[in-house]
Specification:
The complex is a heterodimer. Chain A has five helices and five strands. Chain A is an alpha+beta fold. The longest helix of chain A has 20 residues. Chain B is α+β, with helices and mostly antiparallel strands. Chain B has three domains: 156 residues, Aldehyde Oxidoreductase, domain 4, CATH 3.30.365; 178 residues, Aldehyde oxidase/xanthine dehydrogenase, a/b hammerhead (Aldehyde Oxidoreductase, domain 3, Alpha-Beta Complex); 325 residues, Aldehyde Oxidoreductase, domain 4. Helices cover 28% and strands 24% of the residues of chain B. In chain B, the strands form eight sheets. Chain B has a seven-stranded mixed beta sheet, with helices on both faces. Chain B is globular and about 85 Å long. The chains are: A alpha+beta, B alpha+beta.
Chain lengths: 163, 791
């Protein structure tokens, strides 16, 4: 077994140093070493998107990266998107529009939705379906997720406009 | 009783109380639970479809640093198997063992387990286990398994036929049809042979457990995603040989279950046994490949039907044979789903003359058991394809053929020759509403002109019944189903007038916590914020005979209503004493206890009465202190949800690709508790139904017996771009025999989906004579059919 390596992960705005086996996935490090269990594991082979995080601003599947590869990176997980008690508009919209049922895909969906809207502030339903095709939901049939992301996009535009 | 619009919660799209933690990433799923000192289990599974296990050398694994124990079949002395709880007459005995019993019977059957400091180390140690396998001939095709000379999978059964069960076509009143007479009198006899593909729930969260054995108190706490914690407690205690009073099952958030979590599994025993051996918490989380190999599969059937019809479009009789590919052994519910197929196949139609043989067959595949729909979607696929084939043969429009054969709204209760009693519904109205919504006549007209332009558009109708609210316990007894069908509910009013509701139901995403809170708040006529729902702890919650399912809320809701009726009656008795009035002159309304006609003057709040109930200084004679009630409701009958779906698709004849044009749902699930959540359930069940209709399939290689679709790259779950927007309309025919009029609906959406899709595809390709009789209708499968038809 290889020696553990020390890695600094800047997660949700704070730097955390962890000592991990080189083979440990970033997802496992986030869940086990940082205790941030909102990042879920649905397939561990990069298909389902439940482990989606934002890494240096990009959407990344944390099950497909090793923790040591993320040394020094800026990471945002589901736990880091609300502003204190104030939910991110994407979180509010998922609840209001019934964009979640069991909730297991939801952290990944919300982060993927934020990413879509960051690149396209006014996405059409078809654009949302295409852009979010890398995230699987087994409960909703997707329609209400599309509605949630559209509603969040509108809310984010309104918020951005007033800021 | 006077009511106001205030605090009426049934029929309201109340926000889900489940959401707040889930949208913040603060849900608590099995994998998130890790008590101090937890060690991790990994399981070695058979890489062969059929192989004798002559020995397992565990020495190297046991010697590895960080390994705590290795379990094999040799460690199972005194440990029992899980029973098959549905034991139909003539069914051969079959159980679910913790490890492959001397030989492995399917790829993925557990052979050994390792417990180590981390999951990484436990998986490393699996590589050090040396199993001496003697590979045996295997069979993965259901007809081949029945052929002479086929490898026998369970030697004690003698052959691969587990059960042959006949539906003789006698209804619940004892009236028998005359199926042979009907076929002799027929003008046309239409035949169909259908392969319903093997697929399953494939929840995004895989299965898992954390077991905590306390050797001082001799208690086992199992954190588990089981949908039916009560039954798991009963069966697990029996298997482990410990008192059931020592076992507590705690259920955290569940990341989807879809029926698969209804069953008991080998790992339930293994993780518990490991914890008892080691005296510390043991955790096992299934990985995705294990989930695809070792969580139960569903559906797979080979159906052969013959339908007798008159030229004027009357269905005179139906007879069939259903071969159910059960996989290597019966799992918790036996051939239950295939039995339901036989019971439901006459669907919404007045087919008095019916006969069906259902055969449960063993193959070297993963056990086929509980999955959302439970035999209903398979039945609807067969009969709805048969209706379309018949319509085409007779030259009658498929909508018109259905119209001519449907049970009418004034013919309930209807005694089906499948044995079920349909309680209520309006099938023709649902059909007409669906046709109107899809603009049927217009789409039919356009279809012709589009075809001239090379666009192959098809319209597929499929109607369904869903016999839900399973079921009156006495009927389960008649069916040799060894559990009860009741749900219990305890409601406690605290001294401040707030309610806590304890339910054996387990939310799996469908919003049960919210809907039961709505029912309680509505019947207590109090603010929903003052209702708490407690679930997921067998030490606190009522025993549930049947456990949680998407279509069980209706039964659980009645238990809540009945418990609340007792509370209200007691509150009236106590309130009457306080108000110095005759109890007959006092009523419960608007969350208050008041003298009738003097509500403004002589009235108490629920909290006033509750406080008195807890002080208990002046209770009516015979009443006990506090304000609580428990009611265990055993349903009087099944409820029958129903509806019609219409799919409109375009088929690309060059590629076999199916493009959505429209999908319309008309659904009747009786009284609706929460419209938004009902929509979500219909969408979700549809995605399960259409997934299996178009994409999802467990494919086995005949040569090797290997499961080929054992990653999500190969097993195709529908993605955002595979599914259409659904247009949903409701009819409301309340169930006549349940309080509240609710019917189960969490599964209904998947019932007609495959039939609607296959009928639409067949309709689109009618010029070629292509018949979509096998699911999933994948592009490659469809392209082959088009190619064979010369298209």
């Amino acid at each position: 077994m290889a020696e553990n390596m020390s890695v600094v992960l800047n997660v949700n705005g704070s730097g955390r140093s962890v000592s991990v086996e080189p083979r440990k996935t970033l997802a496992d490090a986030i869940r086990e070493d940082l205790g941030l269990t909102g990042t879920h594991l649905g397939c561990e082979h990069g298909v389902c998107g439940a482990c989606t995080i934002l890494l240096d601003g990009e959407v990344v599947r944390s099950c497909l990266m090793l923790a040591v590869q993320a040394d020094g990176a800026e990471i945002t997980t589901i736990e880091g998107i609300a502003d204190g008690d104030a939910l991110h508009p994407m979180q509010s919209a998922f609840s209001e529009y019934h964009g979640l049922q069991c909730g297991f895909c939801t952290p990944g969906m919300i982060l993927a939705g934020i990413d879509v809207v960051s690149r396209n502030p006014d996405p059409s339903p078809q654009e949302i379906r295409e852009e979010m095709g890398g995230n699987i939901c087994r409960c909703t049939g997707y329609q209400k997720i599309v509605e949630s992301v559209q509603a969040a996009a509108a809310a984010m535009s309104a918020e951005g406009g007033s800021a | 009783m006077t009511t106001t619009q205030e605090n009426r919660w049934i029929g309201v799209s109340a926000p889900r109380r489940e959401d707040a933690p889930l949208i913040r990433g603060r849900g608590r799923y099995i994998a998130d639970i890790e008590p101090a000192g937890t060690v991790h289990m990994a399981i070695l599974r058979s890489p062969y479809a059929h192989a004798r296990i002559n020995g397992i050398d565990t020495a190297a694994a046991e010697a590895m640093d960080g390994v705590h124990c290795v379990l094999t079949a040799a460690d199972l002395e005194g440990i029992g198997d899980f029973p098959t709880i549905w034991r139909l007459p003539g069914q051969k005995e079959c159980t679910t063992p913790a490890f492959a019993p001397g030989k492995a019977r399917y790829v993925g059957e557990p052979v050994a387990a390792v417990v180590a400091d981390s999951r990484y180390l436990a998986e490393d140690a699996l590589d050090l286990l040396d199993v001496d396998y003697e590979i045996l001939d295997h069979v993965v095709d259901v007809e081949a398994a029945l052929a002479d000379g086929a490898p026998v999978i369970n030697e004690d059964m003698g052959d691969n036929t587990i059960i042959e069960y006949t539906f003789p076509g006698i209804n619940a009143l004892g009236v028998a049809g005359d199926v042979e007479g009907a076929f002799e009198a027929a003008d046309e006899i239409v035949s169909g042979r259908f392969k319903v593909g093997r697929y399953s729930g494939v929840a995004l969260e895989t299965r898992g457990h954390v077991a905590e054995w306390d050797d001082l108190r001799q208690t086992l706490t199992l954190h588990s995603g089981s949908q039916v914690a009560s039954l798991l407690r009963t069966e697990l205690a029996a298997a482990l040989g410990i008192p059931e009073t020592s076992v507590r099952i705690l259920t955290p958030n569940i990341g989807g279950a879809f029926g698969n979590q209804w069953d008991r599994y080998p790992e339930d025993i293994l993780v518990s046994l490991a914890s008892m051996k080691l005296g510390r918490p043991v955790k096992w989380i299934e990985d995705r490949r294990e989930a695809l190999q070792a969580t139960v599969h569903g559906r797979e059937q080979l159906q052969e039907w013959q339908l007798a019809a008159s030229t004027d479009g009357k269905v005179l009789g139906l007879k069939g044979r259903v071969l159910s590919d059960q996989g290597a052994h019966l799992h918790s519910v036996g051939i239950g789903p295939a039995w339901v197929t036989g019971a439901a196949a006459v669907n919404q139609y007045k087919i008095a003359n019916y006969h069906c043989d259902v055969v449960g067959v063993a193959t070297n595949k993963t056990p086929n058991s509980t999955f959302r729909g439970f035999g209903g979607p398979e039945a609807m696929f067969g009969i709805e394809r048969m209706m379309d084939k018949t319509a085409r043969r007779l030259g009658i429009d498929p909508a018109e053929l259905r119209r001519r054969n449907m049970i009418q709204a004034d013919e309930f209760p209807y005694f089906s020759p499948g044995g079920a009693v349909y309680d209520s519904g309006n099938y023709p109205a649902a059909l007409e509403k669906a046709l109107e919504a899809v603009e049927y006549d217009k789409v039919r007209e356009e279809q012709q002109s589009l075809r001239d332009q090379g666009v192959y558009r098809g319209i597929g109708i499929a109607s369904y019944i869903h016999v839900s609210g399973f079921g009156p316990s006495a009927i389960l007894g008649i069916l040799d189903y060894y559990t009860g069908g009741y749900e219990g509910s305890t409601v406690k009013i605290d001294p401040h007038g707030r309610a806590t509701l304890y339910t054996g139901m387990i939310p799996m995403g469908q919003g049960t916590e919210t809907t039961l809170a709505q029912v309680a708040a509505d019947h207590l006529e109090i603010d929903i914020a003052n209702v708490r729902v407690v679930w997921g702890d067998t030490d606190q919650t009522p025993y549930t005979g049947f456990g949680s399912a998407g279509s069980r809320s209706n039964v659980a809701a009645v238990a809540v209503i009945k418990a609340i009726e007792e509370i209200k009656a007691k509150a009236v008795r106590i309130g009457a004493g306080l108000l110095e009035a005759d109890p007959d002159d006092v009523a419960y309304a608007d969350g208050r206890i008041s003298v009738k006609g003097a509500e403004e003057m002589r009235s108490l709040t629920l909290a006033d009465v509750a406080q008195q109930a807890y002080w208990a200084h002046k209770l009516p004679e015979g009443d006990q202190p506090t304000l609580e009630a428990t009611y265990v409701y055993d349903p009087a009958n099944f409820t029958t949800a129903c509806g019609t779906h219409v799919a409109v698709v375009d088929v690309d004849v060059d590629t076999g690709k199916i493009d959505w044009v429209k999908y319309v749902v008309v659904d009747d699930a009786g009284t609706i508790i929460n419209p938004l959540l009902v929509e979500g359930q219909i969408h979700g069940a549809l995605s399960n139904g259409l997934g299996g209709a178009m994409l999802e399939e467990f494919v086995y290689d005949e040569e090797s017996g290997q499961l080929l679709s054992s990653t999500l790259m190969d097993y195709l779950v529908p993605s955002f771009t595979d599914l259409p927007d659904f247009e949903i309309h409701h009819l409301v025919t309340p169930s006549p025999h349940t309080e509240g009029g609710f019917k189960g609906m969490g599964e209904a959406g998947c019932f007609p989906a495959a039939g609607a899709l296959a009928n639409a595809v067949t309709d689109a390709l009618s010029h070629l004579g292509v018949e979509a009789d096998q699911t999933p209708v994948t592009p490659s499968r469809l392209w082959s059919l088009i190619d064979q038809a010369g298209g």
